[in-house]
Request: fold
Amino acid sequence: MIWNIGIVGFGHVGQGFARVLMEKREYLRRKYDFRYKIVGIVDRSKGSIYRENGLPLKRVIKEVEEKGEFVSYLQRMSVEDLIKSGNLDILVEAIPTDVRTGEPSMRYLRIALENGVHAVTTNKGSIARGYRELKKIADRNGVLLKFEGTVLSGTPSINLMRDALAGCEITQIEGILNGTTNFILSMMERGLSFEEALHFAQEKGYAEKDPSGDVDGMDAAIKAVILANVIMDANISLEDVSVEGICKISSQDIKEALQQGNKIKLIATLIKKGDEVAVNVRPEKISRDNLLYSVDGIENALLIHTDNLGRVFIRGPGAGGKETGQAVLSDVLAIHNHYFSRDLEPRIQAALFPIFSEQFHLLHGTQNSFS
Reply:
């Protein structure tokens, strides 16, 4: 079968996903029996393009690189038009979103799930604000909602804890969830002031022109909310998190910590006791025997406390278009494998396929046209 995919938002993440798809096309077909067509892309600044039988990704990416906008296959359409075209199986959504309200990501995800379209998002706001609502809509309509890229970019976190650690009770999570603040603190260890380190981070493209969401600790807090609600079954909001950023950390603070054999890191801590989950984000002194001590630069990491395995530690890049594009790809493949894994016995595949095909109009050789 061939999956019809639509992309909403064609910035760093959307393009990163498209590039990974293009570069890995044959590998994905050979390894996972995964075949796809990108049938539509909608972007606020670049325009909207659609082709029922699939867009040539190489040409689309080249045009965006050279022109900064779509040139070929132009078609005026809204996100709603694309979702409701009857020619879409998976929506990949990666648009700028208000992290406090989750909009407009929430609205687009609702429409997709209500129309029987699987949804993959990298938006922290919509999952932090509306995970439970969106999950109910997905379950009610027999589709999947995936969001691996919302916490550690391409470094496995959500899916690792939900799938690979299934059966483990996770009682505590400590993490470095924001690469920008980690980079700034690492540069301050080399002698830069906070202002100098921030300016350097902006020059490198790690920090936004307005870095408040990072340095105030809010980005890490939003990611912590996602972990609490999704992994620890909490029901908390951003207002329930105690947050302190790194703006008050001075060069002297960094120097004194290093002299004591410690480092200062912005740490998100989640502790589950019974049905209650307490979450805080704040700068902490980390000693050498803490696994988070050696996580420097733009890297992120999680130290996961479990009952069956003890401590599990993961680290990796916490930002980047290609890296987050990989997270999107892993979610898309998870949807594919959920229904068409080669590891399933033939009799199970035979039982699943007719049901799936009838529900999601994915019979071989059948494609509905855009209207």
Remarks:
- The two ends are 22 Å apart (CA to CA).
- The first strand starts at residue 3 and ends at 8.
